[in-house]
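The passage that follows is intended for readers who have already worked through the single-chain material. We present the inputs for a multi-component assembly, then the predicted structure in tokenized form, and finally a short commentary. You are encouraged to pause after the input and sketch how you expect the pieces to fit together before reading on.
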Amino acid sequence: MYDAAIIGAGVSGVATAWQLSHYELRIALLEKCADVGFGVSKANSGIIHAGFHHPVNSLKARLEIRGNLMFEKLQYELGFPFRRDGILVVAFSPEEMVTVQKLYAQGIANGLRNLEMCGRERLLQLEPKLSGEVVGGFFAPGGGTIEPYRYVFSMVESARKNGLDLYCDFKVERGEFDGAHWTLTAASGETVKARYVVNAAGLFADDVSRNCGAEEFRIIPRKGEEYLLDRESPARPKRVIFPVPTRTSKGVLVIPTAEGTTMIGPTAEFTGDKGDVSTSADRMKQIVAQVRQMVEGISVKDIITSFAGLRPVLETEDFYIELSKKAPNFVQVAGIQSPGLTAAPAIGEYVKDILKNAGLKMMEKNGDHALPRRHEIRHETPETLATLHAEDPRWTHVVCRCENISEAEIIEAVRHGHTTLDGIKFYTRAGMGRCQGGFCSARIMMIVSRETGIPMEQLTKKGGNSRLLAGKLGSMEVI
Amino acid sequence: MINHKTCDVAVIGAGAAGLAAGTECASRGLAAVVIDREPLAGGILRQCIHNGFGVQYFKEELTGPEYAARVIAAAAGAGVEIKLNSTVSEAKRLADGTFELLVLSPADGVSRISARALMLAMGCRERNRGNIATPGTRPAGIFTAGAAQRLLNMEGMLPGTGAVIVGSGDIGLIMARRLVWSGIKVKAVIEIMPYPSGLTRNVVQCLHDFDIPLYLEHAVTNIFGRERVEGVEAAPLKDGIPQPDGKFSIDCDTVLFSVGLLPENELSRKLGVEINPATGGAVVDENLQTNIPGVFAGGNVLHVHDLVDFVSAEAVRAARGIVRYLGGELAPSGCPVTAGANLKYAIPNYFSPGVKTEFSFRPLIVSDRAELKAEQNGTVIWSKDLRFVRPSEMLNIEMTAGEGGLLFNLQHKE
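Having made your guess, compare it with the prediction:
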């Protein structure tokens, strides 16, 4: 019997699990995919927002600002890539400057003290790669970028170190409350019992809510396509560049990612399909045209890959984070679209407090939440590499040449439970470079097979039916 | 403990080009170290188990691994030191004009290799789905043709059960046949140009002989499938634009991309080597020396070849340049070479007057009868009749010219 079961290992679910792992509680984290963070959390812009996009009395603004401030300490403890390079909102006309002024005022109303209104000269000084056509904007030094999947992985690792039980490939089909506790049943028939349940199921929070007899609401997916540029692209800016937002979206951005690539996107279009993460030629053209207005040096030739994510949009404008009024001891965490990633650490705290107020007794425990510093050879000096090699020669066996990732790092990923090609890619970055796994995928598959005993033909890209290979040569009849 | 090593020539890449260059340098008395990230030497030849290699260079028809074995044996025989499983993570030019490489390997750990000259022989990587931004989903079952070739020929693994191949480059054509021989159905090859981009003999031996449909002037406009590929959508092109009314779907669980090779010049760029945008490889003179004295390039890293025989010959020329450079006998060549009508590029980019020089070109046209002309100071000084000119087949000629810039033109002849 668990004290709490959290459904969904996305940014909100893992932040909650992490918070609860600081107490003498038995907690379970239930994830329907083969690995954590495989839903919305791995497919977004990775922005740590600065707190000016949302109105002062919104839960979004409150949790965004609180969350924003938590990242240095979290990075120090958990080691995920995070940079506070600042956000620039840029305008190209006097009309756009009106919106800029409003955003600036909203930021001030939200309590931000380090915002700076900028004329054209100051903007170009802050970001030389900007188009000379900018007329003005503002600078929010508190904005930044993280690698969201690394954030999710490290939160889970830290929580598991402190007692969290993780269940992957566990899709909650229904939940029943018997007056004292919940029984959550997976598609496989497996069950987990818990006194409290947190619904942090992202795109499927509406289904989970319904299947647990809680509130009826609808999550409508809104797709965003993103395109990644080669890390050597000369167009990479120093700051995250935002256009002036529209009524429906924060706009198409130019993002210098925390690991050194450049990302352009996202678009925003409603799709009826919670599984539709396809990209399209039209959206690519749209994105490139829009970003080239802001940074002229961006070239289609530098594109190395693309992806799409789905925002879990609720009809209301704000986050829905509340104790259910219908299902007992059930916390709803839904509609966590932008600024969800930024707010996540604060969402974890907020949900913990909801649970406390709902009667879940929490005794602080002496835990050790810090993760040992990971070695990543691309960030190490030759001297350190020589020392690492003396401990294990696989530290100087480069497997992913584009991103400079060693065999030892791949093995570490496998030992942390990541056995899908995507899981290893998100943990190590192997396969994210310019050759997109052309050279390293075969090697990675061999390493995973060797380390786990799983035959190569059973390895998957992202779990489920995403088998990478069809079988051994000789197993198919030649007609 | 960081290892230190000194040599005369450090060669980056132990494929056909690197081995040939290393062998030539060593046989002329230079200490040559060839560095490769793979566990075995031979480069891409190791996975090219089909034949057709060596017809020019060895006057025999060999498979890729057989060709590799020959050049590896020659290297060993000449005393070339080959460092395998070794990755050059940094290449620097020092103030005294020599070079230092930072090399990582499981056997040696971290090594600094000092050399008086460098041979760039890193070959190419494949252009992939991400580079051409093919719309659709990102399921399992999408491979570059070369990656599928490696999995199939070296690990004995089938990439799928039914495939569509994007691009009619040689690797895609060879893999079409290879997949059929492995029991995998090949539903179609989709090519955006109005002509195939691979060698004619491959189109015949790999597609026609197996009744695999080739759709010229078509593009793949969508990939379907959430976890594993389920199919692709293709459409005919008109002026390069997909025509929606002509689009059709093909069921498959595998997509192979054979859409071009990109010379791997990341290390070169970081070193400051000037890159020719027309080739993706270094700007070189007739000695195959780059803009950095002591840095030479040959093989696929210089420009994409279609026959390994020419790679070997080119690498030997580069090595001869290295020998002369280290002997203090190289003078800078000043006369520029320009690729004119119907030519994608000309190599080298500079030549020395009075010296017999090998020139390589990529034609931009398909022509059964054409003429290649060299113009200097406004006068045609040389010409050659050519039969069966194709963009998929490199042109190599030899000529000597006097002082002055050279302009090459390729014209179709009636």
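Commentary: Chain A is about 30% helix and 20% strand. The first helix of chain A runs from residue 11 to 20. How closely did your sketch match?
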